[in-house]
Amino acid sequence: MVYLDNAATTPVNPAALRAAWPWLTEEFGNPSSTHELGQRASDALEDARARIAAWLNCRASEVVFTSGGTESDNLGISGLALANPRGRHIISAKTEHEAVLETLDYLARFHDFEVTWLPVDSLGVIIEADFVAALRDDTTLVSLMLANNEIGTVHPIARFAELAHQVGAAFHTDAVQAAGWLDTRISTLGVDSLALSGHKIGAPKGSGVAYLRGRLAVEPLLHGGGQENGRRSGTENVAWAVALATAIEALPNFAEEQSRVTKLRDDFVAEVLQSVPTATLSGHPKQRHPGIASFCFEGISGEAVLLELERRGVIVSSGSACAAGSNEPSHVLIACGFNAELAQTAVRFSFSHLTSAEELQQAAAALRESISAVSAI
Ligand code: PLP
Question: For 78-99, what is each residue's pLDDT tens digit?
Fold first, then answer.
């Protein structure tokens, strides 16, 4: 099997699972308990937090353990918007993940926020002038993702965060797909809040963190015992926190990995565009996630191509895992100006840190056969 759906989820790193095991078995203490069993769990939790903070280049107290990317997006966005009543205006973009779109929709419907949805160009790029024009005195929050999960387009988040701060707005970024591939250090990005999901980087599903800048007030989503500095109540999942820290430490150096995988991706894209005349690459050709290559195949059903690829042992998806299975065309491709018919032809190949040139050659060959098989129907 050639698994090229890593943007949906990655296999769990065995080292992460081994590190988690004791905290699921004999070391079962509650980290809030004062006895020794509990204190050992608390030490493990704080050790995991410190290791993740070192990787993010932030303070350990700014790392909040959550259940994944969706919760971290909800906490960053609602948490900052509700606790900082500077104004009721928020800026985001039409190509964000559902975890952001739906949270903002909730804030607009139930908390009287007004959201400006930035458009994107045909490559999924946000034009800086549009962003600057949208900023207002009452803009309280900006939420823009680092790398798009469907088309891979990368946004200049450090620049946008700087512009947002000039009007006093806080900045949240969804870095779920970017983690391990791009520079996600807080010191580089300058954001106030960042969402990270464990299962996209070799940790178990249901693990994740939110980075939340220490000096900012955050309204928690979960109320209760006041764990995580009062920012996320509920007994912490020590095992998954340890697994996440271990998976993060196993990630390759992003700068070296970028050049290795960008070359693989560019060769793969060139091969597909050359051998399949109906193929177009979606997203920006260069300013993109190293491990995401997504195409539209005019006149051919993307879902049918997926099935043919699967029969040939190549696992991919049509775009976001959340939208998979629904017949709705991708909101990201629609925002890029694709018509609904072309958007239904989308196929996304997403790589892991272990993806090899041989696997991509196999995938390209399987794709050629699959397109012929679907065209012949
Ligand atoms: N944000 C982006 C960009 C994603 O791709 C995903 C998952 O696909 C999420 C958020 C949600 O993360 P999780 O599955 O951990 O809730």
Answer: 999 999 878 999 999 999 999 9
Tens digit of each residue's pLDDT (9 = 90 or more) over 159-183 = 999 999 999 999 999 999 999 999 9
Query: Is 321 a pocket residue for ligand 1 (Cβ < 6 Å)?
Result: yes
Q: Which residues contact residue 65 at a Cβ distance below 8 angstroms, ignoring those fewer than 6 apart?
A: 45, 48, 49, 207, 208, 209, 228, 232, 236, 237, 240, 241, 244
How many Å lie between the centroid of ligand 1 and the Cα of residue 255? 23
State the burial class of residue 133 (Cβ atoms within 10 Å of its Cβ: 0-12, 13-18, 19+). Answer: exposed
User: Which of the four pLDDT bands, split at 50, 70 and 90, describes residue 321?
Assistant: low
Distance CA 312, CA 362 (A): 9
pTM over 0.85: yes
**How far apart are the CA of 180 and the centre of ligand 1, in A?**
14
Distance between CA atoms of 287 and 360, rounded to whole angstroms? Answer: 21
Active site members: 322
Q: Is the CB of 177 under 6 A from ligand 1?
A: yes
Q: What is the DSSP string of 221-252?
A: SS-SS-TGGGTS-S---HHHHHHHHHHHHTSP
Within 136-202, strands assigned E span 139-143, 170-174, 193-197
Ligand 1, atom nearest to 148 Cα? 3
**Strand 279-282 and strand 89-93: pairing?**
unpaired
Q: Report the greatest alpha carbon distance in the chain.
A: 69
Quick one: pLDDT at residue 326?
Answer: 62
338 CA → ligand 1 middle, Å: 23
Contact 282, 338 (CB under 8 A): yes
The closest-lying atom of ligand 1 relative to the alpha carbon of residue 208 is: 15
pLDDT, tens digit, for every residue of 330-344?
999 999 999 999 999
Say yes or no: CB of residue 153 within 6 Å of ligand 1: no
Site to substitute for ligand 1 among 71, 100, 155, 200, most atoms within 8 A of C-beta? 200
Say which residues have a Cβ less than 8 Å from residue 307's Cβ, sequence separation at least 6.
Answer: none
**Joined tokens for residue 360:** 């991509």
Pair of tokens at residue 189: 């990005």
**pLDDT computed for residue 85 by the predictor:** 72
Distance (Å, whole) CA 295 – CA 283? 9
